[in-house]
Every structure is written in C-alpha cells, then in structure tokens.
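User: Earlier you gave me the apo prediction for this protein. Now I'd like the version with flavin-adenine dinucleotide bound, so I can compare the two side by side. Same sequence as before, with the ligand SMILES added.
Assistant: Got it. Here's the input I'm using:
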Amino acid sequence: MLKQSVLRKFKEIVGELNCWHKLEDLISYSYDAAVEEPKIPDVVIRPNNYEQICEVIKICSEEGIPLITRGAGTNLSGGTIPVRGGCVLLMTALNKILEINREDLYAVAQAGAITFNLAQEAEKNGLFYPPDPGSMKYSTLGGNVAENAGGLRGLKYGVTKDYLMGVKFFDMEGNFVTGGGKTVKLATGFNIPGLMVSSEGVLGVMFEFIFKLLPKPHTSKSMLVIYKDIIKASETVSNIIASKILPATLELLDAFTIRTVEEATKIGLPTDADALLLIEVDGHPAVVEEDFNKIKEICIRLDGTVEVADNAQQKDKIWEARRKALSCLARIKPTVILEDATVPRSKLSDMMKAIRSISAKYNLTIGTFGHAGDGNLHPTILTDRRDKDEMERVKKAIDDIFEAALKLDGTLSGEHGIGIAKSKYLEKEVGKGTILFMKKLKYGLDPKNLLNPYKMGI
Ligand SMILES: Cc1cc2nc3c(=O)[nH]c(=O)nc-3n(C[C@H](O)[C@H](O)[C@H](O)COP(=O)(O)OP(=O)(O)OC[C@H]3O[C@@H](n4cnc5c(N)ncnc54)[C@H](O)[C@@H]3O)c2cc1C
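And here is the structure of the complex with flavin-adenine dinucleotide:
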C-alpha cells in the first residue's frame, strides 16, 4: 500500500494527469501479453522528461518501492507483471525519434518510441532499420532492447543487439549511466550497451538509444514453397544455409497454421500442404537473381513446389500469411501460449518431430510457425486456461518442449526473454554459476531488489 505522502510527491513530479492510482486505472498494468497470473501495481507513473524519471527512481529507492519499467506491455514472458506490486513506470510519452544521421548512419531515439516509427523514419531517409518484431507497430524500442527482440529478418540482418550502439539509463540510485556512442569502433570501458540488451528491466531504466542504420537494399524477391512433408521443408532450410546463401527471410508455417490462416483470410494458401516456406532474398539485383535461382533449385530437389511472387500484390499475399499467423491461431481458442524455443538450424527437423510427438502425447492443439532460418520456432498451444485438466497437460508439454530444445543444444528463448514464464528452466540451460553471477551483478547494483523484482528468477 502506497503512503499518501509518497503519492503526493509522485503527483508533484509528473502532475496529477500522469499519476494513476485508482483500481480501474491500474488493472490494465497488471498483465502483459504472456499467459501469467496478473498482479495489480500500487501506482502507474508516466514521465514526460528524463529528470522526472530520475526523481521517481530516487523516491522508489528511498521508500523501498518496486519499480517496473513498461513500454507497450507486448512481451510474451510476463516481464512487466508487477509481482511485488509497486510503481509501474510507463515510458510511452518519451517517444521521439531525435535524429536520423545520413552521414554516419545512425539514429538517436527515446526508449518509448514505437519500433515501426524508427523503421519508417529511416526509410524516409533512404536508410534501413532491420529489426522487425511482429509487434513492431506497438512495441517500444526500450522493450526491444530489454528483450533483445528479433523478427523476420534475423537470419541475414541479426536482431536488436546487432544495432544498439549506445544507451543512456538511470540505475536504481538515480545515477545517470551512459555506454557506447556514435562511432563504429568503440573500446572505451565495459560494453554497457551489450549488458543492457536482454536485461529485462532489472538493471536500469533506459531512456535513450543510438541505433546503427544500414543503406536500404536495392531490391528483393520472394517465393512461397509448398511441401507435402514438413520434414522436407526443415531439411530445405538446413540445405539453404549450408549452401552459404543468407536469405533476408526464411519462415515456416505448419499444416495446422496454413489451414487456420486460410480459413480466416481466404488469401489462397494451399490447405492440403503439410508445410510452407516463405523466402525472401534482397540486395544487389545480380546477386538476388543468382541466390534466388540457387534456392529454387534446392527447394525443388527436396520436393518443394515453388510459387514465385512476380509482383507486389503476390509478395504481399506471402507476407500477409506470415504476419497473420498468430492472430489467426488466436481465433481458435480463448488462451494462446506462444513459445520460442530455438535450436541450431541443422537441428530444425529434429525439433519439428519433437513438437509433433509432444502434441500427440498430451493431446493438445499446437500450431507451429516461425523463423525457420534462425532455428527459432513458435510452437503455439491453443487452449483454455479455465480447463484445469488441459492446463496441466499444457504445462507438461511446455516442460517437454524446453527439454527437447536444450537436448538439441538449443535455448529457452530466441527472442521473447525469460521474465517469469521461463525462470524455472533457466538454471538448466545456464547452470548455477551463471545464475550466481547474474544475482551478484543485480544485487550489487540494486541491493533491495527493487528494479523489476523476481524476473529471470533473480
Ligand atoms: C502479436 C505479437 C507479436 C510479437 N512478435 C515478436 C517478434 O516477432 N519478435 C520478438 O522478438 N518479439 C515479439 N513479440 C514480443 C514483444 O513484442 C517484444 O518482446 C517487444 O520487444 C516488447 O516491447 P514492449 O515495448 O511491449 O515492452 P514491454 O512488454 O513493455 O516490456 C518488456 C520488458 O522490457 C522492460 N523494459 C521496457 N522498456 C524498458 C526501458 N525503457 N528500460 C528498461 N527496461 C524496459 C520491461 O520491464 C520488461 O521486462 C510479439 C508480441 C506480440 C504480442
């Protein structure tokens, strides 16, 4: 329960309109996009400048109030659930793209800026910001950095960590910390931007970033490849990578997802297919043509039927199928649990087989799609959290999915983070020593464990 005197201080800092404490205003901040138990915070504060952030942090620190930084709340790991109550710091008013630098190819942006807006501003200047999470029209750059968000272009262009050049943040004492900068090379002190990537809000409140930009690729070409056997589709992925071609995008949809998307959208997907691969290559026209033809040959050799997108409309159809996969699956049942276990690419077909047998073992509906080129699959369990018996089977299936991924030298999360959803599995992947190291780092900086407590199990 928040003291009235503290509430008054918060209101003095950010103004009455940016400080919410009534139950009806707090409910929306008790959950995020993960299927986890909600918890109501004591107060939500929306700062409008960096000084206000610093002042709020200092009060939380003095008063021992947990502080949960929140962007758009689209994370899929329970990362913004205020498990100990406290203060939610909403970053959405700090949403400016401050600079697009065409000479040195970087952007400066505030942490609450929407990912899509940065990509658009870069494009207007003939430049390219590649990280494109499916949520990019809503997610904030702060959330992207804190979760190391990826997207469809991860295979060729990497993920958020590959673009973060600099960061500014406050630690839990309100100290201003900055790391990285505007130069391509930088060997000055610790790699602080690297430390803040995937930090899930437990080390500091980030408010400004410098991101690398790229020249826009000259051209691109897409194809849709139809398979009667998903294992052949997975083998195609490994063969493409092994032939030393890096498509910009290499996505997979399984049979259940194809049928569900087609039913909802009627865009003309082949409903008798066992799997689809959606492939795009980009770059210089001559290289694009050569890579495209090589990929086509590999697909045909592995029994794929290739449909080339000859115009913008056909290209749109291909990518609409992928973009709508999650929302179409979500129409089937009231609860959708989207996982992101990731394996080395050569183990993709083993992981697909494992997911199929887990789905049969627990009699669950699992649609699988994802970034096949990164070995990053999204087995999506369709269920109803009110059905206690089914939820027990769902929990066991999730345990088995992670067990299978780790056995294949994979990881618990390719892009959604650990949060509270996967914290119980973390030690299995990284070991006791690593957990201890993370705890020492965290408690050294935040001895009272106020910054986003209990996330990642620390
Ligand atoms: C439909 C849908 C599609 C998605 N597709 C993808 C995808 O393709 N790829 C992908 O990687 N993810 C995807 N996600 C997950 C999610 O969108 C990403 O994790 C995104 O980066 C979260 O951004 P956010 O602004 O919503 O962050 P939030 O959910 O608000 O916060 C996420 C974490 O970041 C911390 N945080 C937020 N801002 C700051 C800050 N300024 N300083 C310090 N810590 C901060 C929070 O405390 C929390 O731990 C998807 C989610 C949905 C719902």
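For your comparison, keep in mind: The domain at 104-215 is CATH 3.30.465.10 (Uridine Diphospho-n-acetylenolpyruvylglucosamine Reductase; domain 3).
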